[in-house]
Write a structure and sequence with these properties.
The chain is mainly alpha-helical and 73 residues long. The chain is rod-shaped, with a radius of gyration of 27 Å.
Length: 73
């Protein structure tokens, strides 16, 4: 409630331009680090999924060419 009262008398450009610019200037490095971390984790998950899918493809291809009596685990 106090923040709303504090911002009531300010012009629109202070609320919608100046304050976000100051926030990005202060926390920009942290925001960039968080975005980089999320993209890095998503890339590693994608690589992991691709490697597991490739492994399953190779195993099923070689298992399919061998005898079909060994289909049980």
């Amino acid at each position: 409630m106090a923040v709303k009262e504090l911002l009531t008398g300010l012009p629109w450009w202070v609320k919608w331009v100046a304050i976000p610019v100051i926030a990005v200037a202060v926390f920009g490095g942290m925001i960039a680090s968080a975005v980089f971390f999320v993209v890095n984790v998503l890339f590693k998950v994608l690589v992991f999924v691709a490697l597991v899918a490739g492994l399953l493809y190779v195993v099923r291809k070689f298992k399919g060419s061998s005898s079909s009596a060994d289909d049980r685990w």
